[in-house]
Specification:
Pfam families: ABC_tran. InterPro entries: AAA+_ATPase, ABC_transporter-like_ATP-bd, ABC_transporter-like_CS, P-loop_NTPase, Type_1_exporter. Keywords: ATP-binding, Nucleotide-binding. It is built from eight helices and ten strands. Helix content is 34%, strand content 23%. Helix 5 crosses helix 7 and helix 7 runs parallel beside helix 8. The chain folds into two domains: 36 residues; 179 residues, P-loop containing nucleotide triphosphate hydrolases (Rossmann fold). Helix 8 links the parallel strand 7 and strand 8. The strands form two sheets. Strands 6-7-8-3-9-10 form a six-stranded mixed beta sheet, with helices on both faces. A four-stranded antiparallel beta sheet has the order 2-1-4-5, with helices on one face.
Length: 271
Amino acid sequence: ILGDVGRTQRKYQGLVTQQSALWSIVGMIEDAESQREPEGGTAEPHLERGLALRGVSVEYDGNPVLRDVDVEMPVGSITALVGPSGAGKTTFVDLLTGLVQPSAGRVEVDGTPLPELDLRRWRGMIGYVLQELLLLNETVRMNVTLGDTEIDDAQVEQALRDAGAWEYVSRLEGGIDAPVGERGSLLSGGQRQRVAIARALLHRPQLLVLDEATAALDPENEAAVWDTVAKLRGRTTVVAISHQPSVVRVADRVYRVAGGTVQRLEAPQST
C-alpha cells in the first residue's frame, strides 16, 4: 500500500509541475497575442517623393519617448539623427518600418499613412545595417547573399561596389569566394562594415537605415564609410543614426533627438 501511495504522490507532483508549466506557456502565448502587430493595409508602397512624420508622439507604458515630432525626409536624401544614446533615435526609425506604432500623429510614405500600406512589401523595400554585425564564418559571397542561389556574381560585385568594398575584395585570394573568418575576423572593422552595407544594398532598397553602423569604427574608417554613404545620394533614401557628429558632414538634413524632442539643425548639404 505504501508503494502505491508513493507512486500516486509522485504522479500528483509531476502533474502539478506540468500544470504549472502549462499555465506558464499559456501566459506567454497570451502575452504574445496581446502584442501582435497590426496586419497593415493593402496599398502598394511607393517611395518617389519622401517620408514624413506628422505630429508623431510615442509612449511606452505611459512614459513619453517622442513628442509631437514633425520631420520630412525627401526621396534620395541623407537624413542624420544625432543625439545621446537612449534619446529615441532607434524608436524614430522603428516608426518608419512599422515596428512601433505612434500614440498620436502619423507616419507617411509618399503621403500615404503607413497603416494603409502592405507592410510586408514596404519592409522588403528597406535595407538595415546595425552596429552589431552578424557575419557568418563563410565567404564574402555567402555573407552578401545569405545563401540566395538566385543571386549571380555580377549582382554581388555591384553591391560590393556600391558599398565601397569591391576594391579590397577583388584583391583577396578567391575574391568574393574568400573566407571572412569567424565573425569576420579576417577582415578589418571597416571592411566588415562595408560587407554588411553591401548585403543591405544587394536588393536595391528604396530606404537604407544605418543604426549606429559606424559606432565601433576608428575615426578614419568611420569617415570612409560615410564617404561611401554620400555616394548613394539621389539613388537611395538614407536615414543614419549616430551619436557621433561625423555623420553631419555628409547629411542633407540633420535632426537632434534629445529629451523626447526632435530639432532640425543646420547641415552642410542643406536641402
